[in-house]
Design goal:
CATH topology of the largest domain: Growth Hormone, Chain: A
Helix content: over 70%
CATH superfamily of the largest domain: MFS general substrate transporter like domains
Protein name: MFS family permease
Number of strands: 0
Structural class: mainly alpha
Subcellular location: Cell membrane
CATH architecture of the largest domain: Up-down Bundle
Order of helices and strands: HHHHHHHHHHHHHHHH
Pfam families: MFS_1 (PF07690)
Main location: membrane
Number of domains: 2
Keywords: Membrane, Transmembrane, Transmembrane helix
CATH class of the largest domain: Mainly Alpha
């Protein structure tokens, strides 16, 4: 089981690329929390904080495919440097707007957040697109699993670090440090790409099928279904997060939300490590089905179906169900890289990031409505609906056809 990880570690530059891509993503998991504190403290309105946060995410989502296509056509390293510096400077400016303008000027902050989001460095799509050019076989499956597992860890660590900085210093300082992390991560990742010989544009393939694919990436069989799957999985996972938070607040023990979230992340990490060590092609539909079972198991252990609910039982369900998260995400990410034309993989992963952002935006109000009108078990059932849609979409994603890699100069 450990052999794929040994193969992965033996490939030059891959451990360094993994390290820097995770550092380059860390800011994304903590910035929304710091932004909420900053805007709510400035305007005395959590609703306005949500508007500004949504504007930032909208900018990031819009820029995803554009940045990905630019990386494919003109190379990723220079793009990462320019966007990394721009994004870091932009977040620093945002951090000081509340001290310079009255709260009535909050629309200026929303516009600024959207513009800054447009300059978000495309670390995620670039990193996911580069793995098929460096790795093959079990090692390639393993790197996508490690990627998904570490991303789960970032979503546990990032908000904690941001909250610590907010409490210890200020929300503005937390945002400035998020910007600095974005810049340092993007620059370090760009340097590692150069050392690995992957900093330039991806040469176009010459076969007829790939030339037709270049006419429209979204027309490639399976791409739209993959985007829909990403949207559904992200929406479902966020709805489960919100369900846990809502139940913890209902029972007057907010700390349980953090504890149960950590248990869920641990389950995902264990599942990811096991799945990454398995040989053979991952079965996407099977992994999404296992994810469905894990989410569905939450419905009968939450109120009003099971009241009062037991935190021990909820924790056990989250631990076991969480084991399917990272494997499903890894298989979905890998499948996009397999079915997308090689010279447009980064753009494909940019679209995938945008789809995830849309899932995030849909899940927040949906989970809030279901919690208000039905309770935690109903909100969990809403997450089940999204994963069911994900299963139906996974079935429509074709198995990859062998595509010759373009020669790299």
């Amino acid at each position: 089981m450990l052999q794929p990880y040994r193969d992965l570690a033996a490939v030059p530059r891959v451990p360094g690329l993994l390290t820097w891509t995770m550092l380059g993503r860390l800011h994304l998991t903590g910035t929304p929390l710091a932004m909420s504190f900053l805007i709510a403290g400035w305007t005395d309105s959590y609703a306005l904080a949500g508007v500004v946060g949504a504007a930032l995410m909208a900018g990031i989502g819009v820029a995803g495919p554009v940045r990905g296509r630019a990386a494919d056509r003109r190379g990723a390293a220079r793009l990462l440097v320019v966007t990394g510096i721009s994004y870091g400077v932009g977040l620093t400016v945002i951090a000081f707007i509340p001290s310079l303008l009255p709260a009535a000027w909050w629309p200026v902050m929303a516009v600024a957040a959207f513009v800054v989001g447009l300059s978000n460095p495309p670390v995620i799509p670039v990193s996911r697109a580069v793995w098929p050019r460096l790795l093959k076989g079990p090692a390639l499956n393993s790197v996508y699993t490690v990627d998904a597992t570490l991303t789960e860890l970032l979503y546990a660590v990032g908000p904690l670090l941001a909250a610590f900085l907010v409490a210890l210093v200020s929300p503005a300082a937390s945002i400035v440090i998020s910007g600095a992390l974005a810049t340092v991560g993007a620059l370090g990742f760009a340097k590692m790409l150069s050392l690995a010989g992957q900093s330039g544009p991806v040469p176009a393939s010459t076969d007829g099928e790939t030339r037709r694919d270049r006419v429209g990436l979204l027309n490639t069989p399976g791409i739209l279904a993959s985007l829909g799957l990403a949207l559904c999985l992200v929406a479902a996972l966020l709805m489960v997060d919100m369900t846990i938070v809502g139940w913890a607040r209902e029972v007057g023990a907010p700390i349980l939300a953090g504890v149960l979230g950590a248990v869920w992340a641990i389950g995902s990490g264990i599942g990811g490590l096991v799945a990454g060590g398995l040989s053979g092609m991952p079965r996407l539909t099977r992994r999404v089905l296992l994810n469905l079972l894990g989410v569905a198991a939450l419905v009968p252990v939450l109120p009003p179906v099971f009241d009062p609910a037991s935190p021990w039982l909820i924790g056990l369900v989250l631990l076991l169900g969480g084991a399917a998260i990272a494997p499903a995400a890894a298989a979905a990410n890998a499948r996009v890289g397999e079915i997308a034309p090689p010279e447009r993989r980064t753009e494909a992963y940019g679209w995938l990031s945008s789809a995830s952002t849309v899932g995030f935006s849909i899940a927040l109000p949906t989970s809030g409505f279901l919690l208000d009108h039905g309770g935690p078990s109903v909100a969990a059932a809403g997450a089940v609906v999204f994963v069911v849609l994900g299963v139906l979409l996974a079935v429509r994603i074709p198995a990859p056809k062998p595509v010759p890699e373009p020669a790299l100069s």
